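Hi F.,

I've been meaning to write this up properly since the lab meeting, where we talked about keeping a consistent format for the predictions we share between groups. The idea is simple: the sequence comes first, exactly as it goes in, then the C-alpha cells exactly as they come out, then a line or two of notes. No screenshots and no reformatting. I'm using this chain as the first example so we have something concrete to point to.
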Amino acid sequence: MTRADERGAAAGSGWAKAPQWANDPDRAAAIAAATARDRRHYLTGGMTEIECRSCHALVMVKKTGAHHTSVQWNDDALDQCAQISEIRASGGNAALLPTCPRLSASIDHGVAEGIIPNESPATDPDGYW
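Output, unedited:
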C-alpha cells in the first residue's frame, strides 16, 4: 500500500481527502475523541448560561474581554426574545443584530454579580492556551 493510499488519497484524482485510518483503529478512536473535545471546547468551553431578565430566554455567554462577548443562541431563546421577534416580523434579519439590548443588559448584570467572568481566565480549563 502506498503512502497516499494509507492517508485515504483518491487514486489519480490529484487531491487527497482526510485520512481514514482504517488500518489503525486506535488512531481513529483517538482522532474521534480529540475532535469531540474540540467541538465541546469551541461550542461551550468557558460559556455560562444566563437568563434574560426581560423575556427569560436562556443563552450561553462568554466574555473574553471588556469589549468582546460571545453569545450562543438556541432556537428556543430566539423564539422567546421579543426584540428578535419584532425584527423578524418586520422583515429584518436578526442575525445582523449583535444581540438584544435587553439581553445585553442582563449580561452586564451577570458580570456585575459575578455570575459571568468579565474576561477569559489566565489559563484555559480545556488546555488550549
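Notes:
The longest strand covers residues 58-65.
The chain has a mean pLDDT of 82.

If this format works for you, I'll send the rest the same way.

G.
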